[in-house]
Every structure is written in C-alpha cells, then in structure tokens.
Design goal:
Bound molecules: flavin-adenine dinucleotide
Strand content: 5-15%
Order of helices and strands: EHEHEHEHEHHHHHHHHHHHHHHHH
Number of strands: 5
CATH superfamily of the largest domain: DNA Cyclobutane Dipyrimidine Photolyase, subunit A, domain 3
Largest sheet: 5 strands, parallel
Number of domains: 3
Structural class: alpha/beta
Number of helices: 20
Shape: globular
C-alpha cells in the first residue's frame, strides 16, 4: 500500500504539509495532479492561469522525476479520479492541503466521506494560508469584515515555521498518466504567450529565485516605492503564491529573517507582511462569502444601476481609453499577464466609476488575463474598488487618472514602456496628451484621434455622474 498525495494549489515540494505527512507515514508515495474541469460549479481557469499551470506542472514533474518518482497526471472529475487512483494504487491514505472556495470544499468533503466509506483515511492540512479562516474571529465569534482588526487579531496568532521535504524519497509503482502536452494548457494558434514566457519562470525554483531577488534588491524601500509602477519594486510573487509554488509561511519567514539581519527596515518588512495579510483577508472573505465573484458582499449594491457600454469596455480591455496610465496598465496586463497593484486599482476604478460598468465584467477580464488570477484576491479586490465589498474603499473615492499618473509615474517611464506611441512626449504632458500644444504633439509624432485616442469619457463629467449614481443606492 502507499500514501497518495493529491497536489492542487500547492505545486511545491518544500513546506508542503500534506507531502511532509505522507513522507512521515513511512509508506511509499504516489503523487498526483487532477485537471478537474467537470466538477459542479468549479470555475474554469482563465487563459493566462492555464499557461502558468502548464509550466508549473512541467517543473513539478521534472522535480519529482529528479527524485526518482513520477507525477501522475489525470483529467476529469476529481470525485471519480481520486477513488479510482486509490483503488489502482492500493493507497492506504490520501493527503491534501485544503482549498477554500465553496465548489472546491464541496468536492473535497464529498470525497472525504466517500473514501472513509471504503476505509481510506483522508488527511487534510492547512498549506496555503497563514491562518485557517475559521480560526480568526471577532470576540462575538463572527468573521471580521474590516481588514485592520482582522490583521490585528490574526497577527497575534502563531504561524508555523516552514519545513523542507524529507531527503529520503520512496515511491510506489505508479498509475497511468496523461501527457502534459495533451492537455494543451499553453496556447498555440495564435500563440499569445510570448510576453508571458519572457516575463516569468513558473515553478518552485522560479518562486525561490524571485523571493531571493526581491529580498536582495527591492525589500529595502518597499514601503515607499511599492506604489511606483515605473520602478517595479514589488515582489512579483503573486502568481507563485497563487499556485502554491511558495507558501506565505516561507515568504514571511524570509522577510522576518531579513529584518532580524538588519537588511530591511521595520517599516518595509511590516508593509510587506501586511500585504500578505491582505491575501489572507481575501481568502477569509471567500470562505465566509462563498459567491465572492458573483454576488455583492454589501447587498445594497444589488440595486446599483450598472451601465452597458460595449465601446468603453472594449477600449478599456485594449488599453485605448485615452488615459495613458490606465492604458499602460491594461497593456501591461495583456503583454505580461500581470499589472502593478496601484494601476490595477486605477484601471478597475476607471471601468467601474468612469464607465459605470458592473465590476463583475472587469473581474472576469482579469480572471482570464492575469497569471496570478486568484479566486479570492481578484473578486475581493474588485469588490473593494467598487465599494460593494466587506471593507470597501469609500464610494466617493474616484481616482483622477491624470493626477494619479503624475504622482505615481512622475517621469512617465511606465507609460513610455507600455504605450510607446506616446514615448516622445515630455513628462509634464504625458499623462494628459490632449492638453498639449499642437507643436508638442507634432514633435512627438502624436496625432490624437489617430495614433492615440482622445479620452473616451471626460473625467469631471464622469466623476459627477458616478457620484450621483452611487448616491442613489445610499439613499441620499
Ligand atoms: P507585493 O506588493 O510584492 O505583495 C506580496 C504579496 O502580497 C502578493 O504577491 C500578494 O499575494 C499579496 N498582496 C499584495 N497586495 C495585495 C492586495 N491588495 N490584496 C491581496 N493580496 C495582496 N492579487 C492576486 O494575487 N491575484 C489577483 O487576481 C488579484 N486581482 C486584483 C484585482 C484588482 C482590481 C486589484 C486592485 C488588486 C488585485 N490583486 C490581486 C492584488 C494585488 O494587486 C496583487 O496581489 C499584487 O499586485 C501582486 O504583485 P506582487 O506580488 O508584486 O505584490
């Protein structure tokens, strides 16, 4: 008999509690991944995340092969596949790290009882969160709805120390496996993933290298520079965390170590840690509000009159709104599968507040195009920007894309990189090209309305319209 480890959002060997426990059982290991696109209500991965998954599984397979084993790949309903694997391999127990979405929990719960009925134990572990969602509660026993008290409360609790996988590997004879290539997770015709390949190294080693580079180069100064898309001083660990190639425990321990070693200031490490807790908070919300991507947490927003504006939405997706900072962000997203956090806020705010577009439409586009498309962080952040979330940004905060661009991309370097048709404009004008003198535009080779659009909506009017519309649901 063997121990079956079912990998899900935890594509790593180190600091993997399920794998560690399976190794400790002393039984030979069988390691499997199931591509489940059939179980009820599971949200299919978007295109960019599928690309990442394909690459990450290739890395994990190679890492396991280097230890003398083989990652078993199977596609279909997990509720059918896992019991069949248990049977075929004569597994005595199944090990996994927990998931927190409602559909995933339903799959796992049903499996656990089906396997128990056959006398096969399931051992589940907390692998991807610092704190299990049910362990962080208000004094009244309710889930927190506001980040700061959540962070204060969770931050007081102990976090486990990350572990390494055991060096002694022993594998069971393995089952039939699909070929990863047959899953066609990576695009071929058209191959839109060139920019993704150039930007990222999916897999556990890539995650470890990214963390090391961040600690060396970018943690010092993070608290102040993290808001500057032109400087790219954030960790870019989000897709690695999304797929569990690195655990938040590993990131937290490394950051604390840097603080102890004096290589980073308390302000910088504290800021990074609080961002890790925003991720925790999102998962906590997902656990308590299972339809986070579909339903307003604040139900008053159900009455909000969203508008359908296909032209605006198309311009937003393509990075042709006429607001350079928004367009740069949307093009960074399309080219690299990632967008800087400050610009995500601006781009989301623009679609929701300037376009009065239902946040769910923007969330869906991000879901399809982000390599870090995350079942908790993405809908929680969109709801936060819309104001429909648990802990919402105030509805009257309507970012001005010009002043935001001038503040956070002061030299225009970010815009120049992703909106090259504006590259010749001077910094003072690059965030508002429609105000430039004809002579300045001509010298830069910009023909508004031709090489680059005029703003698709005017900021002051859009702002007034949004305030009035949002006031309706407040009963003002
Ligand atoms: P760093 O600044 O280096 O932070 C380290 C880690 O902390 C991140 O990798 C991430 O796991 C976590 N984190 C940082 N900021 C946030 C935040 N605001 N909320 C939650 N966790 C955070 N993040 C995703 O991981 N997946 C998404 O699908 C996603 N969608 C978003 C959509 C919108 C509209 C907005 C405004 C934000 C979204 N975020 C999402 C949050 C945030 O933008 C990204 O986590 C961050 O930009 C990732 O870059 P980084 O790894 O360099 O972050």
């Amino acid at each position: 008999s063997c121990a079956l480890v079912w990998f899900r959002d935890d594509l790593r060997l180190d600091d993997n509690p399920a794998l560690k426990a399976a190794q400790a059982s002393g039984r030979p290991l069988a390691l499997a991944y199931v591509l489940d696109e059939e179980s009820e209500r599971l949200r299919p991965l978007g295109g960019a995340a599928r690309w990442w998954l394909g690459r990450s599984l290739a890395f994990l397979s190679a890492a396991i092969a280097a230890k003398g084993g083989r990652l078993i790949l199977q596609r279909g309903r997990a509720g059918d596949i896992v019991p069949a694997l248990v049977e075929e391999l004569n597994a005595a127990a199944v090990y996994w790290n927990r998931r927190y979405g409602a559909a995933e929990i339903a799959v796992d719960t049903a499996l656990k009882s089906a396997l128990a009925g056959r006398g096969v134990a399931v051992e589940s572990f907390g692998g991807s969160l610092l704190h299990e969602p049910w362990t962080v509660r208000t004094q009244a026993g309710d889930p927190f709805r506001v980040f700061t008290p959540f962070y204060r409360s969770a931050g007081r609790q102990a976090v486990r120390t990350p572990s390494r996988a055991d060096d002694a590997w022993s594998f069971a004879g393995s089952a039939r496996s699909d070929r990863l290539d047959d899953w066609a997770l990576e695009p071929t015709a058209p191959d839109w993933a060139a920019g993704l390949r150039a930007s990222w190294t999916p897999g556990e080693r890539g995650a470890r290298d990214r963390l090391a580079a961040f600690l060396d180069d970018d943690l010092a100064g993070y608290a102040t520079l993290r808001d500057r898309p032109d400087l790219a001083r954030t960790s870019r660990l989000s897709p690695h965390l999304r797929f569990g190639e690195i655990s938040p425990h590993q990131v937290l321990a490394a950051v604390r170590h840097a603080a102890d070693a004096g290589t980073a200031s308390p302000a910088d490490t504290e800021k990074l840690i609080s961002e890790l807790y925003w991720r925790e908070f999102s998962y906590h919300l997902l656990f308590h509000f299972p339809d986070l991507a579909g339903t307003n947490v604040n139900r008053r927003f159900d009455a909000f009159e969203w508008q359908d504006d296909p032209a605006l939405e198309r311009a937003w997706r393509r990075g042709r709104t006429g607001y350079p900072i928004v367009d740069a962000g949307m093009r960074q997203l399309w080219q690299t599968g990632w967008m800087h956090n400050r610009v995500r806020m601006l781009a989301a705010s623009f679609l929701i507040k300037h376009g009065l577009t239902d946040w769910r439409r923007g969330e869906a586009w991000f879901w399809d195009t982000l390599v870090d498309a995350d079942p908790a962080n993405n809908p929680a952040s969109w709801q936060w920007v819309a104001g429909s979330g648990a802990d919402a940004a105030p509805y009257f905060r309507i970012f001005n894309p010009v002043t935001q661009g001038e503040t956070f991309d002061p030299d225009g370097a970010y815009v120049r990189r992703f909106v090259p048709e504006l590259a010749g404009l001077p910094a003072g004008i690059i965030h508002k090209p429609w105000t430039a003198a004809p002579e300045v535009l001509r010298r830069a080779g910009v023909v508004l309305g031709e090489t680059y659009p005029f703003p698709i909506v005017e900021h002051p009017a859009a702002r007034e319209r949004a305030l009035a519309r949002f006031a309706r649901i407040r009963g003002d």
